[in-house]
Amino acid sequence: MNGIAGKIAIVTGAAQGIGFGIVKELLQAGARVILNDYNDRFIQEAERDLGFQDGLITFQGDASQKNVANALVALAVEKFGGLDFAIANAGLTEMGPFLDFPEEKLRNMLDLNLAGSFFLAQAAARQMISQARGGRILFMSSVTGVQGHPHTAGYGMTKAGLRMLAKALGTELAPLGITVNSIAPGATLTERTLSEAGYAEAWGHVIPTGRASTPQDMAKACLFFLGPDSAQITGQTLIVDGGWTNISPMPPDLI
Predict the structure, then answer these.
(1) Which of 19, 103, 6, 22 is nearest to 63 (CA)?
(2) pLDDT over 60 (residue 254)
(3) How many structural domains comprise the chain?
(4) Rounded to whole angstroms, how far apart are CA atoms 128 and 133?
(5) Where does residue 67 rank: exposed (0-12), middle (13-18), buried (19+ CB within 10 A)?
(6) Residue 174: its pLDDT value, please?
(7) In Å, how far from its chain's centre is CA 63?
(8) Nearest to 69 by CA among 29, 110, 6, 116
(9) Considering the domain boundaries, does residue 3 fall inside one?
(10) Radius of gyration of the chain from its Cα atoms, rounded to whole angstroms
(11) 1 in a domain, yes or no?
(12) Class of residue 60 by CB neighbours under 10 A (exposed 0-12, middle 13-18, buried 19+)
């Protein structure tokens, strides 16, 4: 990927799933990466899967916290000399009936999905501005932030908020050479979703392309936004869902 090699990236929530897929693609393209996750065991497993690489550093920490966002940026500067890409991938998925939805679950999602993404973007943008060479910021939204469905009120609200954050920052930071976009994944095969019996088959029946997405699908979209071919794109959300939001049917056994 022209324009990726040698760049410096932070990816939060990246020891598994979509975040891990993004890290793999970045490393293969020649980037240097700070991999963050809250779960130390998952980090150790990611390190084993990726093997020793000069361009990889892992950092355990809660991405909802502002001090962790600041520490990640400081680590990128200390170890690699700067920062070019910030991918706020860390997020919580909590679903349930609106009328009975627990306060704690909602506040945890607000803290990580929204505040954590905001804090990382803020710390990253400040560093990018100080370097005077521009940069790229990416948020991880969701199709639930585009289409409303039962039991997704709190989660979808946070993911819709990330779409608006991309719009607002895309306008505010563009004059400073920083683009800000988001990706909205549809049903994706990750460690979490594959633990649900029949997940891949159920979604494959209602997605126009005939299959659920993979972390690599999201990672490829991510690398497009990080590369030079997207230099004139900012404030946008790219839906990667195999066409599901065109018609939005739910698998019968998941309604």
Answers:
(1) 19
(2) no
(3) 1
(4) 7
(5) exposed
(6) 98
(7) 12
(8) 116
(9) no
(10) 17
(11) no
(12) middle
Which residue in the block uniquely carries the two structure tokens 């899967």? Answer: 49
Q: Pull the structure tokens for residue 183.
A: 């990706």
Amino acid code (one letter) for 243: G
Residue type present at position 127: Q
pLDDT band per the 50, 70, 90 thresholds, residue 253: low
| Torsion angle of C-alpha atoms 160, 161, 167, 170, degrees rounded to 10 | -130
Cβ pair 88, 12 in contact under 8 A = yes
Q: Is the pLDDT of residue 250 over 90?
A: no
* Euclidean distance between CA atoms 146 and 117, whole angstroms: 18
Q: Range of 244's domain? A: 8-254
The CA-based angle 139-1-175, given to 5 degrees, is 50
Give per-residue pLDDT as tens, 95-138. Answer: 999 999 999 999 999 999 999 999 999 999 999 999 999 999 99
The per-residue pLDDT for 59 is: 98
Smallest CA-to-CA distance from 15 within 47, 61, 63 is with 47
**Nearest CA to 245 among 161, 175, 143?**
143
The CATH number linked to 90 is 3.40.50.720
Task: Flag whether 57 is in a domain.
Answer: yes
Integer Cα distance of 248 and 47 in angstroms: 37
Distance in angstroms (rounded) separating the CA atoms of residues 94 and 121: 23
The token pair that represents 8 in the structure block: 């410096």
Apex CA 148: angle with CA 142 and CA 154, to 5°?
A: 70
Catalytic residues: 155, 159
Domain membership flag for residue 107: yes
